[in-house]
């Protein structure tokens, strides 16, 4: 490479995330600069390497280049423009030297002395010198020196080499926590956390260091929120293993050891290549504490997966064995530090971690869980029981009519308790109630019970009750696929009830005929009778009876082979209107919920949403949670994001508060989506991560990862988003979901493009195109191939860009002349022209630009792209010396531009250049 190319590569490395890619890029520049004897680049690249190594989890590699740069500086061969960077890195060197027990303590002290000497000579303040002397004193447990250096540190004014406005208070917090001064530590943090921090290490560093102070001072909400937000920021960063250890300790001491175990398994592989021995020591001790909690919870043999490393295969360790192994590792490392330091400080700290007791029995971590924990669980309403068996049966049958299932079950249970051997008529009523419970799953058994009840009623002079029981038995026949017997009997019983003048019983018997006709597929007959029945009873004084008739008709409309949307919605709304005339009851709310489902199934979400929202007033916790959940989903579908967030938060809070028997994962996922839509990405990330630790189904895992990637992106954590997208891409590949695989690579490419990491973006677009190849999606595939070529172009990888462009052209040649195909081909021509402008001969670029303009002009609604293509074509004509052709083209383009159009100034400048050249 030329010196210019090496310099460009070095500065481009700063756009890469910390880790192997960035480190390799800098090291490659150092190798070439050394080989070519490029003194300035040798120095600059080594200065750059210090940051790459430190934040790339390889601080041991900083020692040699730092010493090299110091020596060059002393010889007068350093770059004065980089003096600040050189002096700044003294601090990282001091902290890193202390983290390696094989480095003598005197050597670290000597570096500190050299740091002070050089700072004084250069006119810098002593603030950072006192800070790092305090750090070293605290490391060895020298309280007197630590106290004196802390005093001097606080008394020294900040200077340009002081840690940033977040990191310096963070270091003071560490000192105060070490002394057990939790309130003072929190007080130092408050003004910092209320401000804006842009440092790479903040605010997650402060929040992590405040976890235990928050817990010990009773600030439980702050502790939970600090854990969730700070862990999310460091979970992908191998350089932050010490901070991850603090989060493990937090989980172990707050009753969250299941989450701690999940975090332990996620990061256990990092222990094989820790950034420093100190990081390994802290992580091993914290992990051992988590495993102690798992063992104490009764799971000593829980398998913990330790990933493969070099020649070691992945293996599951029993929790007890791994705990003992990690504790021994932590204590052995602590002993090495103490031997180096000549004190017992590190060993005492590690033993304190291993023996730490819980501070909170269980601290709920998510916002809704904490809200639920604060709310007192309402006592279930006490059911008052009538005194006699007859009154109990009456009350139970009334509860059945309004679908109050809890009261219904309690009343019949009380009946069975006080009247185990009921007299005949009561026994028949009890048989009818039992048959209701068996109707769906065992209609034959239900029929038997009802026929026995009918016989008893007939024998004891209750002809209407006997006929009703036979009508129900006949419907059970139809449910049992014996309509040839059931339907005639249903009609006969209806005539019998008409003769008896049993109006209410007759209406219900005719409703059973509608039900039977629907069950046997005679839909049109069911509709005719159902409509007649509903209209006839619409004004009936028994409003429950009227509502039942409309609900029966509704079911027929829905079950029709081609459902009548308008009729079904009309029937369900009329049912709700009728029930709303009565006092509130579980039946009203259940009907509203069912009505919402009906409208949602029929794609009428506008009507479904208010029905769900009204049902959310139900007293029954399960019914209320279901209604809130569906109201939230409907509001989200209608782009009413804040309302969706409110409903879904209430659903999750109530579900946790009342311990509702539901799978909460779908509520959490929907709430995460609503949180994203309302600008709450931190809450979305929390919820998605919860689902990832709890879900087993691929669909839920996939959706959680998808939402988490968007949350990381919204939080300004693009590398974390990319990691999650890679996990999701792997899941898609495992399931042979090539559409999903292409989507994940496409989103990753968007993120990389925003970061100006063009070569990586190009590879992602190519991967997306390969996933789509052969799936019958040529337009989507072409888009990714086109964008791959353009990204290679921005990355200045011209050969790759030409290759990708040729692949896109090959695919474009297979397209037809439909408008979407013409549009994609025109886009390709336009981007091809941009790529080809780098060639010495710009005629091929002009040809592609002209083809793009021609394609856009053929399409209606493509005025904007056509105008852009014309301007580009005019500029190329000018560069080729064909101004006479360019001028009318650009003039026409200017006439089509709005007065405030951003392109207008550029076109005017081009025309001015043409006219100036013509004079």
CATH class of the domain at 235-363: Mainly Alpha
Quaternary structure type:
single chain
Percent helix range: over 70%
- Name the strands of the widest sheet in spatial order: 1-2
Strand content: under 5%
- SS-based class: mainly alpha
State the total count of DSSP E strands: 2
On the 0-100 scale, what is the average pLDDT?
92
Query: Which stretches are low in confidence, meaning pLDDT under 50 for 5 or more residues running?
Result: none
* Measured distance between first and last alpha carbons: 45 Å
Total number of helical segments?
A: 46
Give the overall silhouette.
flat
Radius of gyration: 37 Å
| CATH topology value of the domain at 235-363 | Serine Threonine Protein Phosphatase 5, Tetratricopeptide repeat
Q: Sheet with the most strands? A: 2 strands, antiparallel
Under the CATH scheme, the architecture of the domain at 235-363 is Alpha Horseshoe
Label this structure with key terms.
919 residues, mainly alpha, Serine Threonine Protein Phosphatase 5, Tetratricopeptide repeat, two-stranded antiparallel sheet, 46 helices, 2 strands, 74% helix, flat
Question: Can you tell me about this structure?
Answer:
Helix 7 runs parallel beside helix 9, helix 17 (319-341) packs antiparallel against helix 18 (345-354) and helix 37 packs antiparallel against helix 38. Helix content is 74%, strand content 1%. It contains 46 helices and 2 strands. The longest helix has 23 residues, at 319-341. Among the domains are: 235-363, Serine Threonine Protein Phosphatase 5, Tetratricopeptide repeat; 423-520; 594-662, Alpha Horseshoe (Serine Threonine Protein Phosphatase 5, Tetratricopeptide repeat); 815-919, Alpha Horseshoe (Serine Threonine Protein Phosphatase 5, Tetratricopeptide repeat), CATH 1.25.40. With 919 residues, the chain is mainly α. The model has no long low-confidence stretch (mean pLDDT 92). A hairpin with an 8-residue loop joins strand 1 and strand 2 (315-318). It has a two-stranded antiparallel ribbon with strand order 1-2.
């Amino acid at each position: 490479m030329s010196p210019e190319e090496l310099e460009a590569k070095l500065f481009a490395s700063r756009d890469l995330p910390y880790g192997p890619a960035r480190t390799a890029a800098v090291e490659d520049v150092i190798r070439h600069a050394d080989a070519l004897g490029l003194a300035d680049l040798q120095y600059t690249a080594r200065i750059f390497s210090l940051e790459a190594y430190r934040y790339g989890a390889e601080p041991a590699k900083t020692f040699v280049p730092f010493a090299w740069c110091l020596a060059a500086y002393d010889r007068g061969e350093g770059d004065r423009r980089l003096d600040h960077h050189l002096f700044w890195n003294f601090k990282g060197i001091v902290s890193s030297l202390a983290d390696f027990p094989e480095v003598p303590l005197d050597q670290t002290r000597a570096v500190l002395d050299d740091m002070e000497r050089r700072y004084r000579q250069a006119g810098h303040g002593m603030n950072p010198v006192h800070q790092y002397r305090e750090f070293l004193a605290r490391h060895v447990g020298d309280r007197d020196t630590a106290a004196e250096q802390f005093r001097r540190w606080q008394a020294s004014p900040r200077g340009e080499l002081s840690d940033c406005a977040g990191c310096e208070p963070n270091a003071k917090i560490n000192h105060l926590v070490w002394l057990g001064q939790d309130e003072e530590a929190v007080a130092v943090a408050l003004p910092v956390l209320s401000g804006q921090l842009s440092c790479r290490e903040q605010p997650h560093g402060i929040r992590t260091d405040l976890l235990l102070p928050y817990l010990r001072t009773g600030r439980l909400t702050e502790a939970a929120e600090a854990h969730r937000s700070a862990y999310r920021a460091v979970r992908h960063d191998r350089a932050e293993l010490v901070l991850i250890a603090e989060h493990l300790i937090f989980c172990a001491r707050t009753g969250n050891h299941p989450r701690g175990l999940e975090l332990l398994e996620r990061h256990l592989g990092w222990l094989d290549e820790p950034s420093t021995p100190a990081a390994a020591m802290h992580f091993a001790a914290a992990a051992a504490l988590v495993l102690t909690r798992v063992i104490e919870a009764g799971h000593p043999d829980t398998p913990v997966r330790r990933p493969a490393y070099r020649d070691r295969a992945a293996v599951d360790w029993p929790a007890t064995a791994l705990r003992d192994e990690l504790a021994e590792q932590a204590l052995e490392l602590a002993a090495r530090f103490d031997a180096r330091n000549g004190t017992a400080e590190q060993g005492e700290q590690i033993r304190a971690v291993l023996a730490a007791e819980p501070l909170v029995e269980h601290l709920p971590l998510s916002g809704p869980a904490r809200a639920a924990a604060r709310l007192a669980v309402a006592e279930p309403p006490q059911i008052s029981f009538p005194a006699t068996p007859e009154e109990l049966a009456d009350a139970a049958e009334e509860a059945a009519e309004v679908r109050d299932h809890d009261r219904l079950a309690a009343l019949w249970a009380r009946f069975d308790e006080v009247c185990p051997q009921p007299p005949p008529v009561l026994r028949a009523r009890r048989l009818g109630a039992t048959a209701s419970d068996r109707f769906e799953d065992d209609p034959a058994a239900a029929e038997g019970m009802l026929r026995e009840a009918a016989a008893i009623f007939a024998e004891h002079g209750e002809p209407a009750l006997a006929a009703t029981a036979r009508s129900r038995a006949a419907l059970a026949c139809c449910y049992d696929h014996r309509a040839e017997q059931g339907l005639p009997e249903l009609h006969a019983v209806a005539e019998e009830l008409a003769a008896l003048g049993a109006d209410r019983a007759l209406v219900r018997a005719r409703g059973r005929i509608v039900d039977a006709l629907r069950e046997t597929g005679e839909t049109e007959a069911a509709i005719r009778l159902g409509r007649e029945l509903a209209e006839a009873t619409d004004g009936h004084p028994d409003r429950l009876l009227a509502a039942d008739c409309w609900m029966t008709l509704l079911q027929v409309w829905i079950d029709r082979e081609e459902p009548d949307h308008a009729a079904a919605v009309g029937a369900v709304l009329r049912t709700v209107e009728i029930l709303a005339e009565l006092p509130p009851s579980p039946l009203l709310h259940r009907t509203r919920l069912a009505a919402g489902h009906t409208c949602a199934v029929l794609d009428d979400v506008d009507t479904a949403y208010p029905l769900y929202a009204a049902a959310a007033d139900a007293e029954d916790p399960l019914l209320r949670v279901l209604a809130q959940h569906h109201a939230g989903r409907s509001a989200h579908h209608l782009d009413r994001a804040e309302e969706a967030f409110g409903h879904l938060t209430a659903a999750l809070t109530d579900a946790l508060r009342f311990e509702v028997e539901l799978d909460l994962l779908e509520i959490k996922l929907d709430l995460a989506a609503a949180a994203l839509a309302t600008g709450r990405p931190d809450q979305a990330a929390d919820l998605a991560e919860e689902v990832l630790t709890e879900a087993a189904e691929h669909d839920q895992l996939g959706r959680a990862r998808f939402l988490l990637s968007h949350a990381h992106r919204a939080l300004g954590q693009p590398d974390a988003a990319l990691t999650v997208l890679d996990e999701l891409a792997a899941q898609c590949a495992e399931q042979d979901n090539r559409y999903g695989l292409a989507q994940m690579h496409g989103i990753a490419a968007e993120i990389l493009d925003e970061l100006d990491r063009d070569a990586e973006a190009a590879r992602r677009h190519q991967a997306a195109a390969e996933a789509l190849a052969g799936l019958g999606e040529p337009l989507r595939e072409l888009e990714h191939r086109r964008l791959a070529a353009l990204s290679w172009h921005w990355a200045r990888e011209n050969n790759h860009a030409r290759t990708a462009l040729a692949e896109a052209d090959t695919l474009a040649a297979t397209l037809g002349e439909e408008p979407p195909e013409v549009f994609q081909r025109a886009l390709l021509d336009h981007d091809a022209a941009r790529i080809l402008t780098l060639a010495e001969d710009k005629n091929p670029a002009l040809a592609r630009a002209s083809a793009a303009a021609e394609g856009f002009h053929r399409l209606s609604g493509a005025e904007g792209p056509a105008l852009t293509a014309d301007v580009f074509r005019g500029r190329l004509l000018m560069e080729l010396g064909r101004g006479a052709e360019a001028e009318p083209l650009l003039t026409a383009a200017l006439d089509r531009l709005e007065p405030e159009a951003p392109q207008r100034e550029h076109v005017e400048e081009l025309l001015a250049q043409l006219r100036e050249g013509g004079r």
